[in-house]
Specification:
The complex is a heterodimer.
Chain A (H helix, E strand, L loop, with lengths): L2 H15 L6 H9 L3 H16 L9 H8 L12 E2 L2 E10 L2 E8 L4 E8 L7 H16 L10 E4 L5 E6 L3 E3 H5 L6 H20 L12 E4 L4 E3 L4 H5 L32 H4 L6 H17 L9 H10 L5 H4 L5 H10 L11 H12 L36 E2 L13 E4 L7 E6 L5 E8 L2 E8 L6 E2 L8 E6 L5 E6 L5 E6 L6 E2 L5 E5 L5 E5 L15 E5 L5 E3 L6 E5 L5 E8 L4 E8 L7 E4 L5 E6 L5 E6 L6 E6 L12 E2 L2 E2 L2 E7 L5 E19 L4 E2 L4 E6 L3 E6 L5 E6 L5 E6 L6 E2 L7 E6 L6 E5 L6 E5 L7 E2 L9 E5 L5 E5 L5 E5 L8 E2 L8 E7 L5 E7 L6 E8 L4 E6 L3 E5 L5 E6 L2 E6 L5 E5 L6 E7 L5 E17 L10 E2 L2
Chain B lengths: L5 H9 L3 H24 L9 H14 L8 H28 L8 H4 L2 H4 L4 H14 L1 H12 L4 H8 L3 H24 L3
Helix pairs in contact in B: 1-2, 2-3, 2-4, 3-4, 4-8, 7-8, 7-10, 8-10, 9-10
The chains are: A alpha+beta, B mainly alpha.
């Protein structure tokens, strides 16, 4: 528009307005003097003036309400009760609204309530979308996604989300203190990728991944916040680069209104359609920032940031962090590819690369520089043929090519609930599966469709643990182990009806192919690491109840061969307590034939339906995975070496196959350990302050012991190999004390701190050993025949040790006496075994568990007096007792809670209850009694499905989920 | 990164440096937003938010801050008006993306539109038209900014711009009509 022309139009318009409408045409005739364009423009304005009434009459107030009214500071709600939430103090304001602490008065739990900005949810459409999204988000149950407990609307129209209250801090706050150690950054990235992968698998894109939305709990668990909300509001959509110039260099200080270009993918800044790849980009930016301590794309203004995002290549991290693994640089550059086509397709791909390329142990947690990097062990298998590690997802998939181009097998996650789903059994037709899961304090059995659907609790009415389900061959019944009414094997209909008892003993029921008999082990097993000493395999006739034991030395987890010729099982073989898988013929005409007999943990056998293969779980590849061997069902002869079936970094075991052999389902497990030091007041025998984290990671810490000077902790790590770790009490200086295939367990500091006593099978069977804290001076202390020497412990004078001499009971050994022989303590009345594990500081008593030798766990905590050679019961349940220095007082673990027993008064009370979703596994005490060392493990376990091609000829795997 | 002080921003703004506004925005924006949020919590008896109240209060607060040399109230009001315009445009752009379903589930215009928004002018088109007006007739554009975006009365605007209220009234009428016409033309042309 030409200014001169404009002013001419404007002047004529003004003059015309001053005249009555009737006179205007004549005025314009004269004024425009034949300039018809000019006249038309003025006429158009005059016409507009007739209609303009109402236009821009108000002010921008109403618009402002929408724009500003996102409740950044929120309504003042403290003290109010909304729905069943009593609202407390505000906790802060997030991107989309204000967050309050609140009490769920119905369930008595503390929650965080996020109130959505009123401006975001004004109209009915937005309300509906909000609820829809909140529900979708709440359906995404994953440890790394912030769970939405509830979404609702108050009477006065405030929308809220109820979420668990996490303790910790946002990554944004953490980053304010500077860059992170490589291990910590990777840990956060891996966990974030896990959460995002889950969402991506469900077609949900976060769109606003940034440090402010990543919350790191005190336990080191990443929780991704505001899932689904970004999509709802559209508030995170950026403005186009040319108009975004007023974005501030500190986007998080402002509302979401202006967006956060620093973390936006190029296509996002252009306002183009987005998919999972924008989250990949944002995660890449976050990872870069964690390592570099600054963002890869920056600028003084929003426009400058956007320009950098679109055109600039970030400074290579290797310049900034020489300690960073080189692979990480490649992964980052793929995450930050400007062209989404060049980027990882979704977070699962990132996760797979982060894990496998970096060789992260087990679950990708807590990289220790000396930790073994198991994938390298696979190199040996390459010789078998074409072995391809799939980098598709959490699981890799291995196999060997035979011929042609086979259909790609698929690995699909069937369950992903919080907590652990385990012991799956697939219905013979492959359409349903049943599994065991702990809910409300006890294990129940759940039935679920393989193709998706809600789990149905089949045993909701039973307060006892129901576990180890097995579908009958016709799919009509489920046999299972239940602890109800004294425990035993029960049968029920496939949908949970008509429960009836079959036996009052037994574990891991297995059906005969004709459905008439069930085989059980008299001992149970959940993990091959811990086994009761002896178990028999017994056949039970369902119709008559008649029992027939098999002629085996020791056996658990029976599996009936498809033609009813043999039963496979596994058992302990001496020396070394080897976990050996056997098959035994059922016609009575032969002895057991070993299938896999080596030093690895071989267990959980399952037959292929054609009887040609025996599938099993083994840690022979480094971590627990599924394998199979070809066997002759008739003779039990082994026809091949073990062949890998899964190559997951997650613990994978407990296979179950469909009748057509096309589908195999199995359980995975993913544990995290937390070792904490808890200040303790020995006078009041109470916790005296918040814990400090000394270690966290995926190495399945099983025990901990504090050095005499209190500076160091010795840990028993049980994954991926059983080794001893040392870490400073403040969490620094993590070292691997032993690092070899031998199983090293239960380290104990000598009273003078010079040596660490532990149990190890490095000589072929478990014996007591010592090693110096610097890793030198490895010495075998005991040389005993037959039974294992387990969890040895020091006498306070350092001259004697005690240990658990397996079924002999507890034994004491004088280290100084020449050729001294161990003194075995007598059994407890009733023939039970004393399983001692601690020596009192005054030297006068031992504490331990009372063990029935087999069956379900120990029978409580018991004390042995060396003075008068008597036992004294302390608590009917409990394990791993330790003495406090003063008074005859014991700390022990009672089903995940730490309890204290005063032996004199007989009083037993709780000292420390575990945080939600976890249990204490171990308690140790610092020699000055002023701190407890606790070990907690959280378990996440899922059921997966693997489609087996007819001949299992695989090239690369296609991975779903 | 170290940020320049508020005073520096505002001084630059006062010397006609519109670039400064781009950087000053977050500072003043926070204040505006805080006040707006508080106003929203208040019982307003069905009244909509008053932009002018927010702008005035923001001025009081920012001007009252120690060490802050605000050039003049007039400058602040002009700045605030400009700011609010930018904020609304930005907000509208985001809304628009939602409406057009870029990357979102398909929804009809009616379903997606915020009701409050629906009754209001197309802010983006208004902004574009206003930008054109600004180039040929800055005073009219200022009047529109102050009147509509900052919510000032004609009298206040007259005082602000140092012209008579009658002039402001006449200019406002013509500016408004021209903008209306420009927006109608956009619609007719399918823009």
């Amino acid at each position: 528009m030409d200014p001169e022309r404009w002013h001419e139009v404007d002047r004529l318009f003004e003059e015309a307005l001053d005249r009555p409408p009737a006179e205007r045409p004549a005025f314009l005739d004269a004024a425009c003097a034949g300039d018809t364009a000019l006249r038309r423009q003025v006429e158009r304005l005059l016409a507009a003036d007739e209609e303009v009434d109402g236009f821009l009459t108000g002010t921008s107030g109403q618009l402002l309400e929408t724009a500003f009214g996102d409740g950044k500071e929120g309504p003042t709600l403290s003290g109010r009760t909304i729905s069943h939430f009593r609202i407390g103090e505000p906790l802060g304001s997030g991107g989309m609204g204000v967050v309050y602490e609140a009490e769920d008065t119905r369930l008595g739990r503390r929650v965080a309530l996020k109130f959505l900005a009123p401006g975001l949810v004004r109209d009915p459409g937005a309300k509906a979308r909000f609820l829809l999204e909140a529900r979708a988000a709440s359906a995404l149950d994953h440890i790394n996604l912030c769970t939405v407990l509830e979404a609702g609307e108050s009477e006065d129209g405030l929308f809220f989300l109820a979420m668990p209250r996490y303790e910790g801090e946002s990554l944004e706050r953490r980053l304010a203190r500077g860059p992170l150690p490589v291990e910590e950054a990777l840990e956060i990235a891996v966990q974030t990728a896990r959460g995002l992968a889950k969402a991506h698998a469900h077609g949900i894109v976060h769109r606003d991944v940034k440090p402010g939305n990543l919350f790191v709990t005190r336990d080191g668990v990443v929780k991704i916040l505001d899932f689904g909300i970004a999509k709802l509001t559209g508030e995170v959509e950026p403005t186009a680069p040319d108009t975004s110039s007023y974005m501030s260099p500190e986007p998080t200080r402002r509302g979401a209104l202006l967006g956060t270009p620093s973390y936006m993918a190029p296509e996002q800044t252009r306002g183009e359609p987005v998919d999972a790849r924008v989250d990949v980009w944002s995660l890449g930016v976050v990872l870069y920032e964690m390592l570099a301590g600054r963002r890869p794309f920056s600028g003084d203004t929003g426009a400058a940031v956007v320009h950098a995002v679109l055109h600039r290549t970030p400074e290579p991290l290797t310049h900034l962090r020489p300690d960073m693994p080189a692979e990480l640089g490649r992964i980052l550059s793929r995450m930050l590819a400007k062209d989404p086509g060049q980027r990882y397709a979704d977070a699962a791909e990132v996760l797979a690369d982060l894990r496998s390329a970096l060789g992260l142990p087990a679950t990708g947690s807590s990289l220790s520089p000396s930790a073994p990097r198991w994938p390298r062990r696979w190199l040996g298998w390459a010789a078998l043929g074409t072995v391809v590690l799939a980098a598709g997802a959490v699981l890799g998939f291995l196999a060997w090519r035979r011929d042609g181009t086979p259909p790609a097998p698929q690995i699909v996650r069937l369950t992903d609930l919080e907590g652990s789903e385990t012991s799956p059994s697939l219905s013979p037709d492959g359409t349903f599966f049943v599994y065991s899961k702990k809910i409300d304090g006890n294990y129940d059995l759940f039935l679920q469709r393989v193709m998706g659907g809600r789990p149905i609790n089949l045993t909701a009415d039973s307060p006892a643990n129901d576990t180890q389900p097995a579908f009958s061959p016709d799919g009509q019944q489920i046999a299972f182990r239940s602890a109800r009414e004294g425990g035993g094997i029960f049968l029920m209909g496939a949908t949970g009806e008509s429960v009836k008892r079959l036996t009052d003993f037994g574990f891991n029921p297995a059906w005969s192919p004709d459905g008439r008999e069930i085989a059980v082990g008299t001992g149970g097993v959940a993990d091959p690491r811990s086994r009761s000493p002896s178990s028999q395999i017994v056949r039970i006739d369902i119709a008559t109840g008649a029992r027939r034991p098999l002629a085996v030395q020791d056996g658990v987890q029976p599996a009936w061969s498809p033609n009813g010729l043999r039963i496979a099982y596994w058992g302990l073989a001496q020396p070394g307590s080897r976990r050996v898988i056997w098959t035994v013929p059922l016609d009575g005409g032969g002895s057991p034939v070993p299938v896999v007999d080596d030093t690895f943990y071989n267990w959980s056998p399952a037959w292929s339906p054609d009887g040609r293969f025996l599938y099993f779980a083994s840690d022979r590849g480094g971590s627990m995975n599924l394998w199979r061997v070809a066997v002759d069902e008739r003779s039990g002869r082994v026809l091949s070496i073990p062949q890998p079936i899964t190559a997951s970094t997650e613990w994978s075991a407990l296979p179950s196959l469909s009748r057509d052999g096309q589908r195999l389902i199995y359980a995975t497990k993913n544990s995290r350990s937390f070792v904490e030091l808890v200040p303790f007041n020995p006078e009041t025998a109470q916790v005296a302050g918040p814990p400090t984290l000394a270690y966290q990671g995926a190495r399945a810490i099983t025990s901990c012991d504090v050095s005499p000077d209190g500076a160091w902790l010795a840990l028993w790590a049980a994954s991926p190999t059983e080794d001893l770790l040392l870490v400073k009490s403040d969490g620094g200086d993590l070292r691997q004390l032993t690092n070899d295939p031998a199983r090293d367990r239960t380290p104990y500091w000598s009273p003078d701190g010079s040596r660490i006593l532990f149990a190890s099978n490095r000589s072929g069977k478990y014996e007591a050993w010592t090693i110096r804290p610097d890793g030198s001076g490895l010495t075998q202390i005991t040389h005993l025949p037959d039974q294992s020497v387990l969890h040895p412990f020091w006498a306070p004078d350092g001259k004697r040790i005690g240990f658990y001499y397996s079924s002999h009971g507890t034994a004491l050994l004088d280290l100084l006496g020449p050729q001294s022989r161990p003194r075995v303590l007598p059994p407890v009345e009733g023939g039970q075994i004393f399983d001692g594990s601690a020596w009192s500081k005054d030297g006068g008593s031992l504490a331990g568990e009372m063990s029935a030798g087999q069956g379900e766990g120990t029978q409580g905590v018991i004390l042995w007096s060396l003075a008068d050679n008597t036992y004294r019961r302390v608590s009917p349940i409990g394990s791993n007792p330790v003495f406090l220095r003063r008074g005859p007082r014991l700390l022990f673990n009672e089903v995940g809670t730490i309890r204290l027993a005063d032996v004199t008064s007989g009083e037993v009370r709780t000292v420390l209850s575990p945080p939600p979703h976890s249990l204490f596994d171990w308690v140790g005490v610092r020699p000055d009694d002023r701190a407890l060392c606790t070990v907690r493990n959280t378990n996440e376990g899922d059921i997966w499905s693997l489609s087996l091609a007819a001949s299992t000829t695989l090239t690369s795997a296609k991975v779903v989920d | 990164m170290k940020r320049p002080s508020v005073t520096q921003f505002l001084q630059r703004w006062s010397t006609g440096d519109r670039e400064a506004a781009e950087q000053a925005l977050p500072l003043v924006y926070d204040e505006l937003r805080r006040i707006a949020a508080r106003e929203l919590r208040r019982e307003r008896g069905g009244q909509t938010l008053q932009a002018t109240a927010i702008v005035h209060e923001a001025y009081m607060r920012l001007a009252g801050q120690a060490g802050l040399e605000w050039p003049s109230r007039a400058h602040f009001l002009a700045f605030a008006a400009y700011l609010i315009r930018q904020v609304l445009v930005d907000h509208a752009r985001n809304r628009d993306r939602l409406k057009r379903g870029k990357g979102y589930e398909k929804v009809t215009l009616r379903e997606a539109a915020d009701l409050a928004w629906e009754k209001s002018p197309d802010v983006i088109a208004l902004d574009e038209a206003l930008s054109r007006l600004e180039k040929v007739d800055p005073r009219k554009a200022s009047i529109v900014e102050l009147k509509f975006f900052a919510g000032l009365t004609l009298e206040e605007i007259a005082e602000q711009l140092g012209i008579s209220e009658v002039t402001v009234s006449r200019e406002w009428r013509r500016a408004r009509t021209w903008l209306y016409s420009a927006l109608q033309t956009n619609v007719a042309n399918g823009a």
